[in-house]
Amino acid sequence: MAEETWSPEPGTPVVEYRSGRWLFIGGLAMCVFFGLVALFPEFGGHSATPRTKAVSPTAISFLFGALALGGLLLMIGSVPRRHRFVVDERGLWWRAGRKSDLIAWEELRAVRGREPRPPVKDDPNSKAVLSALVFTPVDRNFATRHSALLNRLPTPGPEVELKLPNGTMVRQLTEQIAGVRPDLLSR
């Protein structure tokens, strides 16, 4: 809900994780490596092959400078963001950066945690199951109201998935929901 602010009950435990760390590190590595090549294009000039001697240092600087700039843009676009979840009497609170959302318990019929599973080895059509909290909402507008949190399109069925990075997050959140609203948990 856009009008809600981050104000869960004080003292409630917070479950948090960081996202985007590896993409940020990859962009940083691209920026540093290609940036050094762009700044020092004549490094290794004596050991260069005849084909690479024909390329001017200006062209090398321009090419690798563009790659370093691409790494910088990738790094800026994927700044690691901390996601925080809090479960209290009002609902499930979520915050990431400046965005926040509250899923009130009145909006849900059921909640279940889904652990990750690898695909079945013998079945070529089998897909890996990703970890998620699966909500069964009361109405169809649930995914629209919580689009900041549920950024993917809803599944064709009545359930809506909140993707999480690992099974530990799923277990922690389901344990906290069980402590507050055990009647909502379904297996």
Summarize it.
The protein is of the alpha+beta class. It is built from 5 helices and 7 strands; from the N terminus they run βαααβββββαβα.
How would you portray this structure in words?
By secondary structure, this protein is an alpha+beta fold. It has two domains: 14-18 and 81-184, PH-domain like, CATH 2.30.29; 21-77. The chain is 33% helix and 22% strand. It is built from five helices and seven strands; from the N terminus they run βαααβββββαβα. The two termini are 28 Å apart. The relative contact order is 0.16. The model has no long low-confidence stretch (mean pLDDT 83).
**Separate helix tally:** 5
Number of strands: 7
Indicate the CATH architecture of the largest domain: Roll
Order of helices and strands: EHHHEEEEEHEH
Q: Would you tell me the structural class of the helices and strands?
A: alpha+beta
Computed over alpha carbons, the radius of gyration is 24 Å
Indicate the overall shape: elongated
Largest sheet: 4 strands, antiparallel
CATH class of the largest domain: Mainly Beta
Proportion of residues in β-strands: 15-25%
Strand order of the largest sheet: 1-2-3-4
Which terms summarize this structure?
187 residues; alpha+beta; PH-domain like; 2 domains; three-stranded antiparallel sheet; 5 helices
Describe how the helices and strands are arranged.
Layout (H helix, E strand, L loop, with lengths): L13 E6 L1 H19 L10 H4 L3 H21 L3 E7 L3 E6 L2 E6 L3 E7 L17 E6 L4 H4 L14 E4 L3 H14 L7
Antiparallel strand pairs: 1-2, 2-3, 3-4, 5-6, 6-7
Helix pairs in contact: 1-3
